[in-house]
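[User] I wish I could look at a protein chain and see how it folds. I have put the entry right below:
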Amino acid sequence: MPELIFPHPALNTPAPPSMALTPKRALCMDEEELLTPQMHDFGISEHTMCFNNDFTMDLRQRSFEKTKKPQQNLLEPLLILWLRAFKQMTI
């Protein structure tokens, strides 16, 4: 009977993960990460907050003038189109 020779796996191949990385499992954090709070800098400081407050207060205090548009009869353009179509039908 012939001897079967199987290739040996390379030593630098990564081992398969012990548990499948499902979406729920991927979101799981280690205990060390849970103990130390993560501080992220969003670029908001007291200086930029003052700018934001000034801008908001300026908008509240500003009086906006409403432009008065002339009242236009909405049926007038439709009436003109209808009359043109009627004239073409009678010609």
Residues 46-61 form the longest helix (16 residues).
